[in-house]
Automatic annotation (TrEMBL):
Keyword Heme: no
Family in the record: Belongs to the diacylglycerol/lipid kinase family.
Organism: Microbacterium lacus
Cofactor: Mg(2+)
Pfam families named in the record: DAGK_cat (PF00781), YegS_C (PF19279)
DAGKc domain segment(s): 4-134
Keyword S-adenosyl-L-methionine: no
PROSITE patterns according to UniProt: DAGK
Protein name: Diacylglycerol kinase family protein
Amino acid sequence: MTEPAARHAALVYNPVKADGKALRATVARLSAAAGWGAPLFFETTIQDLGAGVTRQALEAGADAVLVAGGDGTVRAVVEAMSESGVPLTIVPSGTGNLLARNLLLPLTDAAAMVQATFDGDRIGVDVGFAAIRRQDGTSEERAFVVMGGMGLDAAMIANTSGDLKKRVGWIAYVDGAARSLAGAKPFRIAYQVAGRRLHSAKVQSILIANCGSLPAGLELIPSASVSDGELDIAIFQPKNALGWILVWRRVAWDNSVLRRFRAGRQVLALRTEDNSVLYAHGTGLDVASETPQPVQLDGDEFGTAVRLRARVVPGGLITVVPKGHDTSRL
């Protein structure tokens, strides 16, 4: 009787963000211990952030893929893996690791995540896709798993120093925010959540999120879930300095502190709502701007656009988590 072919894992890693030598050794050792064949290794490059080499891994017949890098690397790999049916293990590396944080994965134990590839549990994670239309009529569609945005949030990322981010991590975005706020101007959009009526608003930024948590315990969108089959939308429209204070209160205090406690939720129920931040959710969003605005997806810059059409693929990604991992809060 013919023996079944050995299974193989493929590791896609960003050599700038991950210790490639150590990680390759760990994947090789744990693959052998699990009875799998020799793993495949792929490095990302400036020209290929991860999507191209991931497609190579899938074409080579990889039975599982591991990714090690920052949020941009994870985004690119997921773009190639959506609806492939092949499980993905996220080995946290880099500064953000926002999908790993939202999945409540161990952030400092690479070996535990590698081991999960062979004996962990699998869950379905939604994948967002954003069709970006330029002013010249050209367009492209790209994936995101954390959040995308048009306006100030994208400008903040564009204004963040790459060198500073390497030195201090996600805190560098504070510097980018300060640079962006100085010249921030509201812009007019028309937007429509799938199945709802068309709206017009003057905004500073509009976010489309698959995840709601940011570093430092900040809850940008508390209701966001990676597995509910919907996208969450946050529209930021502060009219003055007081409006920005209300935005910060909503994110840093209301969402991140008060909502965790019953008494806090009672306080929020009694408070008069302000419209500095508006929330919505649905299976898609179509937003058009009168003027070209910067766009970001999972922290990657994607130039400027006059239209953004977002859709969700429910459960489009099979993600590996450690065996017995608590998924009740996802």
